[in-house]
Amino acid sequence: MKPNEQKILDLLSNHDVTFFIPPFQRNYEWTPEQCRILWDDMVNTSRRNIDGQRSEHFFGAITYYKTDTSFGEPDVLVLVDGQQRITTTMLFLAALRDVCGDRKKADLIDSRYLKNQNATGEQDEYKVKLKQVETDWPAYRKLILGDEMSESEQATSVYVNYLYFKEKLLEWKKSGENPFALLNKGLLLFSVITIELKPTENPWENPQEIFESMNSIGKPLSLADLVRNYLLFGEKPKRQEDFYKKYWLVMERSVPLRVSTYIRDFMQLRGKCSFPVTSEANHKRLYQEFKKLFAGIPAESLLKELSEHSKTYGLIVGAESGEKQIDALLADFRQLGVTTSYSFLLALLVEWRSARLSTDGLVSLLSAFRTYCVRRRVVKLVAGENRLFPRLVQFIPDLVAADDRGSAMFARLSQTEFATRLPNDIELANTLEAMSNFYSLKYCKFCLALVEESLTKHRPDIENDDLLQIEHIMPQTLNAKWRAELGQEGVDVHPQIVHSIGNLTLIRHNQELGNRPFAEKKEIYENHAGLQIDREKIVDKGKWDASAIAERAKWLISFVVEKVLPIPQQLRTANNYSVRKQMKAKGLSFKDLGLIGEEITFIDDDAITARVVSDTEVEFEGKVTKLSPLTREIKIRQGRCNQSGSYQGAQYWKYEDIRLAELM
Question: CA-to-CA distance for 315 and 463, rounded, in angstroms?
Fold first, then answer.
């Protein structure tokens, strides 16, 4: 490995090479912001040289290795590092070619930098000097060759950044500046360090290891980047490209922008255990776990399985399966935000798509699992699910083989630890009765929509707030008519009952009822609202007061418990957890709470977060510490530290809007 200094344009003007960006590399990611920095560097360098100051600019390192090519074709230099800078330089040159207004100079740029004069093949990858990764290639190729581009190709970063340079050059020309000054006095004086790897001669110059140690634009490699590199790097360029198109590209299209998350959930599916959520802080750790988990499996076999399962995973994150019931249930899990269950859901869907599980069987399992998740969220339980759900994969053969799959699912979920228990009817009803502010519950609208669905077999669309809103029957602000109707006693209890479940319903768009009198609201509920939930235990009342609200609350709670979120009879009053595994009361343990790898939030400032890294420690601003001293440090920063300086950390941090002390 011997570094050499040379000018970037001398490197690009070599007609005996083609630069190849291998499939294991990232897509082209630079934005106009990075292009602006390059533009400013060219402008500043050219102006200093025009003013008589000798000036050059260091443009970083370019690392590559050569591969074998056919006789008569240019050498292929496979870029390990430098793809973003070289691609952006080429886009600037293409823009300069297209706006310079001088045909001879435009042809010179074309022939010297953008295309290979010595290429004899008919294929574009020989004509175009820089071969992009597959997703960027069509747009880049057409840009260099001058072919017409589609609308989707014009939306790529390649074309967007080309337009950025084109517009800047047109402004430059319009102001009377010479655009070629940016080339002759600027870019021509950009130097790079080129490093040629020779892995066949020097095994220690391993391109894979070197690639893994490098960042692009200061951005750490993601889990997807590292896994793609691991699975493709050992193959010859042709097989790399074939595998990328046949398998990896399918993943990118099935789960766009979610490949790293999908890979982590795939690991949980295959490992039947939990792994930390993906983040910049733990991508390398997850990558090491990936290599251990799949050691010895041929790259193509693993790529094939990843590719096939990614299409199934796409159903979980929003693609349609063609089965309305299944799509609706999967949409509910997205609505609930139960991302920790995705590896388990993937395992169920794999069984269904392989025909080992019928559609009815899958619906039964998903319905039971949804009831479990909704009950827990109403009761404000989420702890431990990130550890439990991946482990459920090991029980799928039993669930699939069961005669009554819904009951089998409930039976399994009722045998977990206390923290992951299935709330019984008593716990659920008591929680709803004691909840004076059901309106603030994150899942309020979702639960009311389930009530409507149970009443009518039709679910109103809850995702669009303009189409469906939560309605306070007794308004949040009492006007004179309401005050007169309620009397002083009713006015006094208004703050305690206005947000309770008995006073809430749903209303469709364009039905802003506000604080209209109850008689007017009742007429709309009965004749114009179009929702059954607006009629039940409302329109039969002559007056809407604390008594009416209490009566409706009692009916709603009973309906939710018995009809909307029913569980098998034998579980309705049972302790639905394993007594043997019940948690003992003790101090804060992130392991017991199942929060290792998760993000927690400071109780009075959602912008302050920390990531749990061990049973007793968190990472904050790059440092590992315990929760209580971290709480004290934040309070000091806020100028609100108490006199003793002592804090119980669990009281000041929350996970998914629930205080850690409550989770304990």
Answer: 18
345-383 tens-digit pLDDT: 999 999 999 999 999 999 999 999 999 999 999 999 988
Q: Count other C-beta atoms under 10 Å from residue 14's C-beta.
A: 17
In eight-state DSSP terms, residue 594 is T
Task: Specify the higher pLDDT residue, 72 or 403.
Answer: 403
Task: Report d(CA 662, CA 644) in Å as an integer.
Answer: 24
CB burial class (10 A; 0-12, 13-18, 19+) of residue 379?
middle
Of 121-125, 234-238, 479-483, 580-584, give the lowest mean pLDDT range. Answer: 580-584
The two three-digit tokens of residue 180, written as one number: 């070629």
State the pLDDT at residue 581.
40
CA distance 443 to 253: 31
Residue 123, classed as helix, strand or coil, is: coil
- 3-state helix/strand/coil string of 310-351: HHHHHHHCCCCCCCHHHHHHHHHHHHHCCHHHHHHHHHHHHH
The angle at the Cα of 658, spanning 652 to 664, to the nearest 5 degrees, equals: 75
**519 Cβ partners below 8 Å, 6+ apart?**
none
pLDDT (average), residues 253-266: 95
Residue 68: predicted pLDDT: 63
Helix (H, G, I), strand (E, B) or coil at 216: strand
- Cα distances from 431 to residues 378, 434, 500, 563, 564, in angstroms, run 8, 5, 12, 17, 16
Helix (H) / strand (E) element for 4: namely: strand 2-7
Instruction: Give CA–CA dist 205/196, Å, rounded.
Output: 9
Q: Which residue has the tokens 């409302």?
A: 538
Beta-bridge partners for 52: none
The answer to whether the CB of 424 falls within 8 A of the CB of 416 is no
Task: Write the single-letter amino acid at 490.
Answer: G
Rounded distance between C-alpha atoms, residue 142 and residue 140, angstroms: 6
In angstroms, the CA 512 to CA 491 distance is 23
Q: Rounded CA gap, 389 and 341, in Å?
A: 5
Q: d(Cα 413, Cα 366) in Å, to the nearest integer? A: 13
Pairwise pLDDT comparison (589 vs 398), residue with the higher score: 398
Cα distance between residue 609 and residue 602, in whole Å: 6
278 touches 286 (CB < 8 A): yes
> Of 309-313, 495-499, 508-512, where does mean pLDDT reach its minimum?
508-512
Residues 203 and 214: their CA atoms lie apart, in Å, by 19
pLDDT digit string, tens, across residues 287-342: 999 999 999 999 999 999 999 999 999 999 999 999 999 999 999 999 999 999 99
Do residues 131 and 79 touch, judged by C-beta distance below 8 A?
A: no
Q: In this structure, what token pair is assigned to residue 281? A: 């802080």
Residue 107: count other Cβ atoms within 10 Å of its Cβ.
11
Quote the percentage of the chain above a pLDDT of 70. 91
Task: Look at residue 261 in the predicted model and tell me its pLDDT.
Answer: 96
Q: Assess contact for 32 and 91: CB atoms under 8 A.
A: no
DSSP string, 63-75: EEEEE---TTSPE
Residue pair 82/207 in contact by the 8 Å Cβ criterion: no
Given CA atoms 317, 445, 663, 628 in this order, what sign does their dihedral have? positive
Q: Is the pLDDT of residue 214 over 60?
A: no
- For the purposes of burial, counting CB atoms within 10 Å of the CB of 524, is it exposed (0-12), middle (13-18) or buried (19 or more)? middle
Q: Is the distance from CB of 142 to CB of 93 less than 8 angstroms?
A: no
| 3-state secondary structure string across 371-429 | HHHHHHHHCCCCCCHHHHHHHHHHHHHHHHHCCCHHHHHHHHHCCCCHHHCCCCHHHHH
Rounded Cα distance, 105 and 90, in Å: 16
Kindly report the pTM of this predicted structure: 0.71
